[in-house]
Amino acid sequence: MAVNTEAYKKIKAELDSQGVTLVAVSKTKPASDIQQLYNLGHRDFGENYVQELVEKESLLPKDIRWHFIGHLQSNKVKYIAPFVHLIHGVDSLKLLKEINKQALKNNRVINCLLQVHIAQEETKFGMDENDLVEIEKSNQITTEMKYIKLQGLMGMASFSDDMQKVRNEFKSLKHLFDKYYLLLTPGSPLATLSMGMSSDYKIAIEEGSTMVRIGSLLFGERNYTTS
Ligand SMILES: *Cc1c(COP(=O)(O)O)cnc(C)c1O
Predict the structure, then answer these.
(1) Among the four residues 106, 115, 126, 178, which has the most C-beta atoms within 10 Å?
(2) Atom 12 (ligand 1): residue with closest C-alpha?
């Protein structure tokens, strides 16, 4: 059995005591692994790839809250819009507009987090502070995007053994969260700060995370097959 249910119970209890939400990241893992944690009562699962998410959604219980945590392309929003619970990786106003459009078509409100680029690495997607200011100024979210609920921010720290560096990156995201949490959505302040993965979730929580995304500690290492 690949799922580490002992680790799950331990981490879940640890996070519950701190009021932090656990998103179990199940990318590349079979539906049966998800079902196993589901049977223990878990409902929040995170996936990175649209096709994989759509497939698993069709196989698994309907009360799962699906988190899309990968890089989302505008032309694929329509496939997950009917059921997705929270989209973590929104990195442009253009994408937000498309999500709003598809949410309207499905007559539902879709929860979103803006992804902020905090790592020093080039490869990570996300907005910077200027983009947040732009969104705030444009006022479009509150006035035009009625089918979006902007819930907070998401970020990924560098993959690094330098824990001070990782901590500082989380600090910078928390700083932005505090600075913009009222401005971005007046009347409905941002509530979710999604930061922290298997290797750094403890630091993320110390720095103010309210939601962590944990994969390998629960499901084991991922094997990427080249196809
Ligand atoms: C894969 C992934 C995770 C989980 O990573 P682990 O190191 O396995 O915990 C979390 N967040 C994002 C955005 C991911 O792509």
Answers:
(1) 115
(2) 69
Measured CA to CA, the distance from residue 114 to residue 91 in angstroms comes to 6
Which residue shows structure tokens 């509150």?
142
Give dist(CA 222, CA 225) in Å, integer. 9
- Binding pocket residue ranges, ligand 1, CB within 6 Å: 25, 27, 48, 69, 156, 197-199, 213-216
pLDDT tens profile 18-49: 999 999 999 999 999 999 999 999 999 999 99
Counting from 1 in the atom list of ligand 1, the atom nearest the Cα of 25 is: 4
Q: State pTM to two decimals.
A: 0.95
**Cβ contacts of residue 47 below 8 Å, gap of 6+?**
25, 26, 27, 53, 56, 66, 67, 68, 69, 70
- Cα of 108 to ligand 1 centre, how many Å? 27
Mutate to test the pocket of ligand 1, among 197, 202, 203, 211 (most ligand atoms within 8 A of CB): 197
pLDDT in tens, 156-214: 999 999 999 999 999 999 999 999 887 777 677 779 999 999 999 999 999 999 999 99
Task: Name the pLDDT band for 226 (thresholds 50, 70, 90).
Answer: very low
- CB 109, CB 103: distance < 8 Å: yes
Nearest residue (CA) to ligand 1, atom 5: 215
Q: pLDDT tens for residues 89-145?
A: 999 999 999 999 999 999 999 999 999 999 877 666 799 999 999 888 887 777 889
